[in-house]
Structure formats: C-alpha cells, structure tokens
C-alpha cells in the first residue's frame, strides 16, 4: 500500500479527518481565504466529480470512445488551479478536468475530444489552457519552451502582478519515467524558466506502481537538475493551493522552476478500458477512500458551521443540472465534415491548402450515395443505446 516516503516532508494543512493544521511556511498562504472561498473550492470539487461520473456513464453507454477519470484527484487540481493568475498558461495532460474548470473551460467541451468530433474543444489561447495531450510527457517540453518564450518577452520579474507570468505543466507519476520530462527539467533549470512542473502522483502508471518507477520520492527528481522540489498532500485542497501559490510566485518573480509532487490517489480506473481490480487490492482502495479530498473539506466546513443545508441543496441541484446538460450536449455532438481537417493547419491563408481543400470537396461530391451509406444514415436517426436506457 502506498504511503509517503519518510525522507521528504509532506505538506499538509487539512488532515483526513478535516482538522486544520498549522504550518509555519504554508499556513500564511491560505490566511486570506474566507468561508466563501472554501465553499467555492468545495463546489468546484463536487461539480468536477459529478461531471467525471457522468462522463464515465456516457462512455459505458457507448456515447464516448474513451474516458480518463480524475476521481480522487480533485483537491490537487482545484487547489492548484485556483492559485493561478489570469495571465498564467497551463499545459495539461488528459486528466486535468478540475484545472480546466478553474480556467473557465465549459466542462462538456472536454468531451468533444473523447467523442472524436474535435481535437480539443475550447479556445486555448483565450483561456490560457492548452489542449489535452495524450502522448505521455511530451507536453512538458512544450511548456518549457513556452516558458522560455515568456521569459524572453520580458514577462517575468517585472514586479507588476498583472504582467508577470508563470507557466504550469501537469503530468502523472508515469510520465516521470519518460525522457521528455527529464529534458524539460534540464532546459527549465538551465534557462531558469518560469515553470511549475506539477506531478500528480496517483500511485499507478496504469498497472505499474510508483515503487516500480522510482527508488526515491518523485519530489526529489528535481535535485539533480537544480530544480527545487516539494511534496504536498494532493488530497488536501488547501495545501495544494498554498504550495502552488509559492511555486507560481517563484516563477513569476524570476526565481526559476519548481517541481511539485502532489501525493494523491487515482480512485477510479486509468481509463474506462482499464480494470484496476486486476492489480489493486480492495484494502488499498478503501484506505484511500477514507482520505477522499471532498469528504475532507466537507468535514472541515461542517465543523466550523460553514456548510449550510441550503448551500448543499443548491449544489446538489446544480450537479444534477450539470449532468443533464452533459448528456444533452454530448448526444447533440454530430460528426464534423471531413473538410474540417483543413481548417487549422495554418494560422494564415495558404494557397496550396486552399487548393487541396477545394479538390477534396469536389472529390467527395463525385460519389453518389450508395445503398449502404443511405442505410447508415437511416441508422443514425434511430435512438442511441443511452437514449433507450434513459
């Protein structure tokens, strides 16, 4: 069973029982958060989990090709995501639904990728949140390069809080075994890039435990590169917020990169094509369910009298409405025209591409509908399995 290694301090501000702990370095970083802020964090986590569960159900009904759950990792994502400034830029992997939520991504838009109708689903430039990356670890290099560009644009260390910019890349423990992550650490360290490398150590790289990936805690991986590392309780939303705020402050001020290891647990499957019962025990799952990040904050808010019945009832209704909207939105996602493959190849008009688009459209139009295609069209008009079940 995975527990934090003893040679690296685990930053924790909220115990699994929901009791607030004092920390000389990090407690001051959450002192400004009032009850409304904490309820906001709680709401974010509840909504993201409701979305996650709905997406899992939709995949099981055949409405999505695949789904990667974030179940159990809500605190690491919401806490760190809420510490970001509007000008900061995020490079996610494919499980950062909570971070996406904090950046203003409309959650159903994430499902365009998993339904196979879009390569992304949101405006990454407007939201400062890049498209999901499915190639393990590759986006850490993209983030490093972007951070070096931000640095060269003079957007670091100016002292202007509305201008100084940090770049964050999120990845899992399995990605730390990829060469791309090591290369990102090399470039970030040497260039003193304004980068936060946020590793969500959820204990399992699909079926491979962290103990089979590293002989030392992942937070120490940065030592050899000259990148400071910190390990935080990833099921503690307050500690995740505090640690990320420090790392972001270091990056924006010109202090260079930080490696954060959020020690958490993937309570669900790696993806919906995975069966975690083949490599995990029920005792391990139960151990971590008792450390559920949402239960932890709920216990604290209840203990201080800041989780009223009206708030809970309104949140339950909001979660149910989100689920309904997710189902409706996903089932309304039609397959795009094949010609859309030409739409975003170049940022500016391109004569050769325009000619190829015109040729392809003419080529497709040259085919008469076959009886088989007409039959498929008629089949598309029938209710889906999910619709029949509901």
From TrEMBL:
The Gene Ontology terms for molecular function here are: magnesium ion binding; oxidoreductase activity, acting on the aldehyde or oxo group of donors, disulfide as acceptor
Query: Which NCBIfam families does the UniProt entry name for this protein?
Result: PDH_E1_alph_x (TIGR03181)
Name of the molecule in the record:
Pyruvate dehydrogenase E1 subunit alpha
Q: Which organism is this protein's natural source?
A: Cellulomonas aerilata
The coenzyme or cofactor needed here is:
thiamine diphosphate
Q: Name one Pfam family in it.
A: E1_dh
What PANTHER family does UniProt report for this protein, alphabetically? 2-OXOISOVALERATE DEHYDROGENASE SUBUNIT ALPHA, MITOCHONDRIAL
Coiled coil feature spans: none
Q: Taxonomy-wise, where does this protein's organism fall, top ranks first?
A: Bacteria, Bacillati, Actinomycetota, Actinomycetes, Micrococcales
């Amino acid at each position: 069973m995975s527990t934090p290694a003893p040679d690296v301090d685990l930053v924790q501000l909220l115990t699994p029982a929901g009791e607030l702990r004092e920390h000389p370095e990090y407690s001051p970083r959450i002192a400004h958060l009032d009850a409304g802020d904490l309820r906001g964090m709680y709401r974010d986590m509840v909504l993201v989990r409701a979305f996650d569960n709905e997406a899992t159900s939709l995949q099981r009904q055949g409405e999505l090709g695949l789904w990667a759950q974030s179940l159990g990792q809500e605190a690491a994502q919401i806490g760190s995501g809420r510490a970001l400034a509007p000008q900061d830029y995020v490079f996610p992997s494919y499980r950062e639904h909570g971070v996406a939520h904090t950046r203003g991504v409309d959650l159903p838009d994430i499902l365009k990728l998993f339904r196979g109708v879009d390569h992304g689903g949101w405006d990454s430039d407007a939201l400062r949140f890049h498209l999901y990356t499915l190639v393990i670890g590759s986006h850490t290099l993209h983030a490093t390069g972007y951070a070096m560009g931000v640095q060269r644009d003079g957007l670091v260390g100016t002292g202007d809080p509305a201008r100084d910019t940090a770049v964050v890349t999120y990845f899992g423990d399995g990605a730390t075994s990829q060469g791309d992550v090591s290369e990102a650490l090399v470039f970030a360290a040497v260039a003193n890039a304004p980068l936060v490398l946020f590793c969500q150590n959820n204990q399992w790289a699909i079926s491979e435990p962290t103990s089979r990936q590293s002989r030392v805690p992942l937070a120490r991986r940065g030592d050899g590169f000259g990148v400071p590392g910190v390990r935080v309780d990833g099921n503690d939303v307050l500690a995740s917020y505090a640690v990320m705020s420090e790392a972001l402050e270091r990056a924006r001020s010109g202090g260079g990169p930080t490696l954060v290891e959020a020690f958490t647990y993937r309570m669900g499957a790696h993806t919906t094509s995975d069966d975690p019962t083949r490599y995990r025990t029920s005792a391990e799952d139960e151990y971590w369910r008792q450390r559920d990040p949402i239960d932890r904050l709920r216990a604290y808010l209840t203990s201080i009298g800041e989780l009223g019945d009206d708030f809970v009832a309104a949140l339950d209704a909001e979660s149910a409405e989100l689920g309904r909207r997710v189902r409706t939105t996903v089932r309304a996602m039609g397959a795009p025209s094949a010609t859309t493959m030409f739409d975003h190849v170049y940022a500016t008009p391109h004569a050769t591409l325009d000619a190829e688009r015109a040729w392809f459209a003419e080529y497709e139009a040259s085919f008469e509908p076959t009886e088989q295609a007409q039959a498929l069209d008629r089949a598309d008009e029938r209710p889906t399995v999910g619709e029949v079940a509901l």
